[in-house]
Amino acid sequence: MPFPSEHGKICGQCLKKPPPFSMVINYGLYEGVLAEAINQLKFYRIKRLSKPLGTLLFSLDLPQVDGIVPVPLTAKGLRERGFNQSLLIARVVSKGIKVPLLMDVLAKGKETPPQIGLSAKERLINLKNAFKVNGDIKGLRLLLVDDVMTTGATVKECSKQLMKAGAKEVIVLTLARSSMV
């Protein structure tokens, strides 16, 4: 969860139940102009917004990593949308910080209903075993990139699979943090 102060390091939820990722870096809150830009990219297919949005991310103080992994879509989801917004954003970050983009390392093989409208618990159940790792990532520090983080169910499940496959660490990077409200 967002911290009430810039001095915060670990949120209450992570203290209660540590997630499989080591940290989350969000550019901002999912509101105002940032939310509008993300929605224009994602739902209105204005792909040219991926460059300025990705630039926002690589302008942050990012930790050193060995590879960048975008949160994947299923083949059906990719056909329906025509592109993966997380991949487009991750590509910009990869070029900006000169770290390899590992776009085929993580796959979403299980079709799941959209997360919108589901509770936090339903979101976790919805994504259980939806992702799988392809390739050797043993010992790598990875930056997992997504557009919006709401409950964290998607990045938790992705991170869990990456860690099970041998990643040394997973750091989550998103454009925006949303709330369930």
Q: What is this entry, summarized?
A:
This protein is an alpha/beta fold. It has seven helices and six strands, in the order H-E-H-H-E-H-H-E-H-E-E-H-E.
Q: What class, by secondary structure content? A: alpha/beta
Mean pLDDT: 90
Number of contiguous helices: 7
Domains, number: 1
- Side by side, the strands of the main sheet go 1-6-5-2
Strand content: 15-25%
CATH class: Alpha Beta
Q: How many beta-strand segments?
A: 6
Radius of gyration: 15 Å
What is the oligomer described by this structure? single chain
Describe this structure in words.
It is a single chain. The chain has a single domain, classed as Rossmann fold. The radius of gyration is 15 Å and the shape is globular. It has 181 residues and is of the alpha/beta class. A 4-stranded parallel β-sheet has the order 1-6-5-2, sandwiched between helices. It is built from 7 helices and 6 strands; from the N terminus they run αβααβααβαββαβ. Helix 3 (50-58) crosses helix 5 (85-97) and helix 6 runs parallel beside helix 7 (153-164). 36% of the residues lie in helices and 19% in strands. The chain has helices at residues 12-16, 32-43, 50-58, 75-81, 85-97, 120-127, 153-164, and strands at 23-29, 67-70, 106-108, 131-133, 141-149, 169-177.
